[in-house]
Amino acid sequence: MTVTPAAKLKTVVIGAGFGGLAFIKAAKHADFDITLIDSHNFHTFSPLLYQVASAGLTAESIAHPARAAIRNRKAKFLLDTVIDVEFDQNRVVLASGERIEYDKLVIAAGSITADFGVKGVKEFTFGMKNIEEALIIRSNVMRALENAARYHQQPVPIVIVGGGPTGVELAGALAELSRVLHKDFPELGPSPLRVTLVEAGSVILSMFPGSLSAIAKRDLERRGVNVLLDAQVAEVTKQDVSLKGGRLLDSELTIWTAGVKGNAISSLLTQRMDIAARRDDRIVIDEHCRPAAAKFPNVFVIGDLAAFLDADGKPLPMVAPVAMQMGRHIAKFLIKPDVAGFKYKDKGSMATIGRSDAVVAANGIKLSGFIAWLAWLGLHLAYLLGGRNKLQVVIDWAWNYLTYDRTARQILR
Ligand SMILES: Cc1cc2nc3c(=O)[nH]c(=O)nc-3n(C[C@H](O)[C@H](O)[C@H](O)COP(=O)(O)OP(=O)(O)OC[C@H]3O[C@@H](n4cnc5c(N)ncnc54)[C@H](O)[C@@H]3O)c2cc1C
């Protein structure tokens, strides 16, 4: 009698981001037939996007080919965009028209910028959620500098909305870019960019202990950033940002880092699964990352798109460690279904302010300044994918540090 081996579990993963890749890595010893689908053929290391936007790094050094990331992981890759999921038939529908069947589906499609309905944000601000957008910011900054030097010899006003880690890191990096570029734009004085950071709350970096938020604000101001707290944006136009209360800030370039929400596919998914959508378009999940209240136990949602609620109904933050830990949890759960429910281990937060300066809060330890900056450098290098990328980033950082220069300034968009 011949014994036919059991068919492998067909597992489709949507998204080659932090969550999707962590799942595939953790499932590498399981006998799954995995297909990874992404609209890009690379993984983006988003924590360093602001350095691409501020001419510190080239785009290629923070993008790692998806196929290289899953090499040796027994997974296939498809470059395509998922436009629908037919949950009743266990199939995902791709933009190419193809339908891919699954036994298990892992949705890790990430998040997009949220404008909270503020007038003018969609039309007149730049988001920084992916490499394309970071390159657009860089190109617009450099073009604005060229125009200013040629026509009116005034520093370029830039407004960044949102005092979270992304806004703070970008503000610090643009302030440093400004100091570096004064040699090449002498017509614009000692500081060719005039950077303002606008935050609606009473502190920046609100997820950090108060003392570190205060240090971050002080250090940004020392670098020449104008930090406005309790400042809510009422409207953005092509040339200015108006705040509630009437204050008007002139702005050649407005960058919106104030909000994120679940990927655009989210509303379609909630409709198809017949579950309620949240205001932030994230999908509420249960202890094994399955959409809560949905009748599809073979579907998992992780990362930024997922809302894992704590006892107070507050979702976990949209950060890479949450996505990665969820990805690893599902792999464990699929291999051993009696595993305990998902529990997030918060390892802390860090943000850079600029050269030799960062803030770190981890396990009750608070660090700032040079030591925190070294910790930040080490951790980001450790998590960046690709040996060549790590080497390239070390070379660029060393070059920027030693020469006080930025060479990745090309206007490409
Ligand atoms: C500027 C910036 C800075 C950040 N800094 C930090 C930081 O310092 N530390 C930190 O922990 N977190 C940081 N984050 C947050 C972190 O990047 C996210 O929490 C994390 O990427 C979420 O992982 P994910 O797997 O859910 O989604 P992602 O990593 O965003 O991956 C989603 C993937 O899905 C793909 N995709 C989307 N829709 C489709 C579709 N329909 N079909 C096919 N493919 C699709 C996308 O192309 C993408 O590759 C930052 C984010 C940004 C934008």
Q: Strand order, biggest sheet?
A: 5-2-1-9-21
Radius of gyration: 22 Å
Domain module count: 2
Assigned CATH class of the largest domain = Alpha Beta
**Which segments are poorly predicted (pLDDT under 50) over 5 or more consecutive residues?**
none
CATH second-level architecture of the largest domain: 3-Layer(bba) Sandwich
Between the first and last Cα atoms, what is the distance in angstroms? 64 Å
Shape: globular
Helix and strand content put the structural class at alpha/beta
The main β sheet shows up as:
5 strands, parallel
Report on this model:
This protein has 413 residues and is of the alpha/beta class. It folds into 2 domains: 9-39 and 80-113 and 261-335, FAD/NAD(P)-binding domain, CATH 3.50.50; 121-258 and 348-403, FAD/NAD(P)-binding domain (3-Layer(bba) Sandwich). The chain is built from 11 helices and 25 strands. The chain has helices at 18-26, 49-53, 66-70, 121-124, 131-152, 165-181, 210-222, 265-273, 320-335, 370-383, 387-403; strands at 9-14, 32-38, 42-44, 63-65, 75-79, 82-86, 91-94, 99-101, 104-107, 111-113, 125-126, 156-161, 193-198, 226-228, 233-236, 240-243, 248-250, 253-256, 260-262, 283-284, 299-301, 306-307, 349-354, 357-362, 365-369. The strands form 8 sheets. It has a 5-stranded parallel sheet. Helix 1 runs parallel beside helix 9 (320-335). The protein is globular, with a radius of gyration of 22 Å. The model has no long low-confidence stretch (mean pLDDT 95). The chain binds flavin-adenine dinucleotide (FAD). Flavin-adenine dinucleotide is lined by residues 14-20, 37-40, 46-47, 49-50, 81-82, 108-110, 128-129, 165-166, 263, 265, 303-305, 318-321, 323.
